[in-house]
Amino acid sequence: MVKLQKKQVKIISVLIAIVFVGSVVVLALTQSGTGIANAASSNVGVVDYNQVMSQNPKAQDAEKEFNTAYEEAQKEFASKTANMNDQEKQDYAMQTQQRLMQKRQELTEPLQKSVEESVKKVAEQKGLSVVLEKGAVVYGGQDITQDVIKQISK
After folding, report:
1. CB–CB of 130/43 below 8 Å?
2. What is the per-residue DSSP string for 124-142?
3. Is the pLDDT of residue 118 over 70?
């Protein structure tokens, strides 16, 4: 059997440690390099939903319809609560507010779906794998807001 001296054992141990640390560093560098390459090659789009909604003719029509419903609710509330006590007025105000919230949801839900469908179509046309809200992105991404507005207007 081979007998190693203490000095030889220390040298072999140091060499093994160097090889181990070196392989970990090389592995880390190669993995981070592929992550950076993947991030650079991924296609990310950004869209400004506020701008899309403000320039959407359907959204403007929905807003007008909601404003009309709101004005009618105000008139109805004023006429029906004239002879009510404070608790009855408060209860009726809550009911009116719930009806208005439901009306708002009924009007905006189809708009949101059409915007999402338009974003999906534009993203597929441009080969984008991810689309984010523009306000959430600090830097980068392909702005597809105008393309989405054109798609909605069709």
Report:
1. yes
2. HHHT-SEEEEGGG-SS--E
3. yes
Instruction: Identify the H or E element spanning 148.
Output: helix 145-153
Strand, coil or helix: 46: strand
pLDDT by residue (tens digit) across 27-81?
Answer: 665 665 444 444 444 588 899 888 888 888 888 888 899 889 889 988 888 888 8
3-state helix, strand, coil in the chain (%, to 5): 75, 5, 15
Identify the bridge partners of residue 142 per DSSP, sorted by sequence position: 45
Tell me if 151 sits within 8 A of 122, measured CB to CB.
yes
> What does the pLDDT read at residue 39?
46
